[in-house]
Amino acid sequence: MENVSRARRLISWASVFALLNLAMAGLALPLRGADNDPPPGFTALFNGRDFSGWKVPEGDGGHWKVIAGAIDYDAGSQAKGEKSLWTERAFGDFVLRVDWRIKETPYVNPNIPYILPDGTHARDIHGKEMRLALPDSDSGIFLRGSPKSQINIWCWPIGSGELYGYRTDPKQPPEVRAAMTPRTQADKPVGEWNRFEITVRGDRVTVVLNGKKVIDDAPMPGVPAKGPIGLQHHGGKRDGEWVSPPSLLQFKNICIRELEK
User: Fold this and answer.
1) CA 20 to 30 Å from 99, out of 176, 229, 250, 257?
2) Which pTM does this prediction carry?
3) What is the mean pLDDT of each run of 10 residues along the chain (261 residues)?
């Protein structure tokens, strides 16, 4: 019996030491802020509760909404004109952080191109562009009020982060189109949260996705010097069926650090 009691005491003390070690390890971990609480030096663009500081499309019908601390969109805006969501303020040079996730991909996109590292599309032996059919949703972050300077969010194999408006513009020189092509695919699976850190200075843009640099100091010829930031609407239905990739997304932790000239 004495040996049993001694063993129990040893187990008890071992449990105490284990709990103390866990507690000390927890103290060593950096404290993580709550959602929509901006880090030092940044200003929140979304407060997690409502659309203060944003322009909801007129006649939207409640399709842009706030759910559980995130901006939620179902791609069904009833606005007759602009359907995307824009900040009220305009910005020049900045570092922007945005967390986003694709909720679901009910539409199969039959026209996803096979994109090469130089931004061009691969072709078969007959010279025809190669296309893939994959589940897809589509949105993006508009910079300085310009749809052309859009950081894409989608399910393409090339990955999110590219600037489609520049990459596909035949008037742009090859080096610009190549610079707008993601250097790597850094997206997390559909349903999981991703983080963009987008740096805009002058007419140059750098995009980091989930800690990986996908666009590196790429030029945006002709980009406005200042403008609002937008969350893109995309997609539509016909007879109750999606006819293009919808913006079935959520956004949170949207914050900005403005840069001096």
Assistant:
1) 176
2) 0.86
3) 49 44 40 79 98 98 98 98 97 98 98 96 96 98 97 97 97 97 98 98 98 98 98 96 98 97 74
Residues 6+ apart with CB under 8 A from 245: 105, 107, 109, 136, 137, 138, 154, 155, 234, 235
* 93 secondary structure, DSSP code: S
Q: Which amino acid is at 99?
A: D
Tokens of 137: 């949703």
pLDDT of residue 261: 74
Amino acid at 259: L
Domain residue ranges in the chain: 1-31, 35-258
- Amino acid in the structure at residue 2: E
DSSP single-letter state for residue 15 = H
pLDDT of residue 213: 98
CA–centroid distance for 115 within its chain: 20
Give residue 130's pLDDT: 97
SS3 for 16?
helix
In this predicted structure, what is the pLDDT of residue 28? 37
Phi, psi of 230 (to 5 degrees): -130, 150
CA dihedral 217, 222, 226, 232 (to 10 degrees): -80
- Convert 7-47 into a string of H (helix), E (strand) and C (coil): HHHHHHHHHHHHHHHHHHHHHHCCCCCCCCCCCCCCEECCC
| Rounded Cα distance, 241 and 234, in Å | 14
Paired residues of 150 in beta bridges:
142
Q: Which residues of 164-197 are buried (b: 16+ CB within 10 A; e: fewer)?
A: bbbbbbeebeeebbbbbbbbeebbeeeeeebebe
Type of residue found at 193 = W
